[in-house]
Write a structure and sequence with these properties.
- It is a single chain.
- This protein folds into three domains: 16-252, Rossmann fold, CATH 3.40.50; 317-611, Roll (Thiol Ester Dehydrase, Chain A), CATH 3.10.129.10; 629-739, 2-Layer Sandwich (Nonspecific Lipid-transfer Protein, Chain A), CATH 3.30.1050.10.
- The protein is α/β, with parallel strands linked by helices and 742 residues long.
- The radius of gyration is 37 Å and the shape is elongated.
- Strands 9, 10, 11, 12, 13, 14, 15, 16, 17, 18 and 19 form an eleven-stranded antiparallel sheet that branches. Strands 3-2-1-4-5-6-7-8 form an eight-stranded mixed sheet, with helices on both faces.
- It binds 1,4-dihydronicotinamide adenine dinucleotide.
- 1,4-dihydronicotinamide adenine dinucleotide (NAI) binds next to helix 1 and helix 4.
- Residues 20-21, 23-27, 44-48, 50, 52, 59, 80-81, 104-107, 127, 131, 154, 156, 199-201, 203-206 line the site of 1,4-dihydronicotinamide adenine dinucleotide.
Length: 742
Amino acid sequence: MAEMLPAVPLRLDGKVALVTGAGGGLGRAYALLFAERGASVVVNDLGGDIKGEGKSSSAADRVVEEIRAKGGNAVASYDSVEEGEKIVQTALDTYGRIDIVVNNAGILRDRSFARTSDLDWDLIQRVHLRGSFKVTRAAWNHMKNQNYGRIIMTASTSGIYGNFGQANYSAAKLGLLGLSNTLAIEGQKYNIQCNTIAPTAGSRLTETVLPQELVDALKPEFIAPLVVWLCHESCQENGSLFEVGAGWIGKLRWERTLGAIVRQNNQQMTPEAVRDNWKQICDFDNATKPESGRDSIMTLHEVLNKLGTKQGISTNPTSGSLQTSTSGTNLIEAIGKRLSAPEYAYTNLQPILYALGVGMTTKDPDHLKFLFERNEEFSCLPSFGVIPAQAGMFGSLASVPGLNIDFTKLLHGEQYLELYKPLPTSGTLKSECIIADILDKGSGAVLLLDVHTYNESDLVCFNQFSLFVVGAGGFGGKRTSDKVKVTVNPPSRPPDATMTDVTSTNQAALYRLNGDWNPLHIDPTFAAFGGFTKPILHGLCTMGFAARHVLKQYANNDVTKFKSIKVRFAKPVIPGQTLETEMWKEGNRIHLRAKVKENNEVVLTGAYVDLVDTVHKPRDDGTSMRELQSDLVFAEISRRIQDVGREMVKKVNAIFQWDITQEGKIATQWTIDLKNDSGELYRGAARHQADTTFMLSDEDFMQLVSGKLNPQKAFFSGKLHIKGNIMHSQKLEMILKDYAKL
Ligand code: NAI
């Protein structure tokens, strides 16, 4: 044992302690020690027998006299703990306050379970559990108001471990632990602490069960010092459980096996699976020690993530687990897989909510057109385009066979968004998502998700999400892909313009209402789990700030001028920090870099916004886009339609729109109308509703019509996007096949 240093005694002067059942046994020892240390003591005891029958004031009175004889302050209370209010009132009437409550009163009505009567059960619950509740509740508000309180619950090893003949008592005693655990949580912010002890000592309760030598040896004085320490203001222990006796004290806690997941996503969970995993469920090797209900819920979050049934959870980069599935499907095979995406229906509310989410404010008069639906120019911010694309994406990503993503290892690395027309301020958009590529970066895998979003058959925008899955590299994939929308560094000169905005403390709380419910952005525990000191701002929210800065600086907030944005998320932003967007104008390209002003950390890199005029117009370097080869084909088709006219219209009876892309951007549109009159082909989007819309690059179009590219393959590899009635597309073959000779 360590050598004892002369210590400052723990004093309780000025404090008022209430000890129930203090007329004898343990309670008496507590009362005496509290008084010796300067506290004023309410000595409560009903004075009945061990079974809870009868009553007398003598027990409490004797202890009060003992205390007074030693010069201490004490007052007797003879009420049953079931009348908690009265006992607490005695403290208030006599001493004007209540600081400490030791719930100690107790009786025994031991019976084997089969012989336990209703009365045996009820009396035990009433004295131990209900009595502790009543006394504590009566004191609670006083403790809250004075911002100080110490509470002790008395459990028993019979409750912790079970004991023959004490079913009623065990239940009540461990019920008190549950009560204590919750009071510890509820009281914490008021400096009310609640702990539980499971004592063993000689008393009239134990003299019938313990041998006399033990009853003599296990003195109540060996319990009292723990109680006094736990009730001292310098003790910060809260919500704990101690076994104590014979001068020894030990703390208890929960231990939990790593356990086993016994079901698979979208499959039934069966009793057989439980049986088959039983060993692992019960294996305490590498067991953990959960400390709170949060630990428990975190485990369930993790399980749901592993099963892929929870959307958009955490981004904690620790170790990788983008695994190939047991069926042997590998990551490379997941390339080209299409993901189902739900429709995104929205009213004016969502664009307004989004505008607020990215920091727009009525303080700025020209923000009104994004915040007020009756403003004449009411518009949807261009960067809102990420919202419909993202809706439901994580869920469907989780369901791709072969892709077994651990969402806790997922980082949003980069984002590209391109608009083909201003976003509607309300409507229903439908997205098509494809795994465009999966790159092997060694330390992780990069998932490129291409999402085309349509309003009816009109392509409204294109998003490329670049997701980094930490630790999932090394699967033998390629390092780069021509599908990647690359980042571009800004010029080396100082920025041409900067714009600054303070994010609000609630920025992430607001932004998440757009549908990104990842708790990382709101729950401090979850954020800590991901290695962050606080919940962080959504990367896409930071992008939203930067996008609107450019829109204001270089496009006078005219949404029709906004073409595309590309960003890389370099560092997290904490809500409340100041964002500064630095901008460089190079023709129609605005390079940008976003920083957190407080620490000068760069949070968006390699970023740019292209304003509309870049398409079709000569580029900055003086070159213009190449001629479209497909134009020739459409000219030929036009001639043919005129030849066959009505006959073809009757057979096909459909309208086809073609969106021909060049360098990833729509370069032109063609419509073949084989529904109206004698048939017609014209440049531009369909004047009447198109039945089927195709999107593909100029080169792929040529490959397709020359028969070198199979339409099915083109579709499944993501080269050809089809929107609308897919069956009609077969009829097209009859128009196209003859052009193989071109
Ligand atoms: P004890 O019988 O000496 O003390 C209990 C006191 O509570 C008695 O003075 C009794 O008159 C009083 N009491 C009973 N019903 C009451 C009511 N309705 N209102 C007010 N006072 C009432 O027993 P002991 O051993 O000192 O027990 C104290 C506490 O410690 C009890 O809660 C008991 O269950 C618990 N405990 C004791 C153990 C031991 O080894 N002594 C083991 C585990 C738990």
